Amino acid sequence: MAKTIMIVDDSSSLRVIVGIALKGAGYEVLEGSDGKDALSKLTGQKVHLIVSDVNMPNMDGISFVRAVKQLPAYKFTPIVMLTTESQDAKKKEGQEAGAKAWVLKPFKPEQLLAVVQKLVLP
């Protein structure tokens, strides 16, 4: 059975690029256009990993991570931040919120896939 990964980014072109890489590696993909939209789509189905941007309208990535970690069904879902933010303070804030990894944009699809494969639980 394919593993499901949610991509949360306000850039539709970035969701397409990440989606192509993930689908090419055999993953199912869910998409959210920002934190609020993504939260509304987390309805109890199994999501094996979430890839989220930090800077988004309505609900930013760090607030989104905090909200996901409050949901019993997703408390242990690994979250990877995919962002242009490289400051240590932001990374620390993301880790404290519950993010497991930090990948900088622009990224290489194989770099993202390597992180995903490490974090997706069997």
Automatic annotation (TrEMBL):
UniProt name for this protein: Response regulator
Highest taxon listed in the record's lineage: Bacteria
A biological process from GO: phosphorelay signal transduction system
Keyword RNA-binding: no
Organism of derivation: Aquabacterium soli
Domain Response regulatory: 4-120
Pfam families linked to this entry: Response_reg (PF00072)
PANTHER family: CHEMOTAXIS TWO-COMPONENT RESPONSE REGULATOR (PTHR44591:SF25), STRESS RESPONSE REGULATOR PROTEIN 1 (PTHR44591)
Record flagged with keyword Phosphoprotein: yes
Modified residue annotations for 4-aspartylphosphate: D53
Alphabetical UniProt keywords: Phosphoprotein
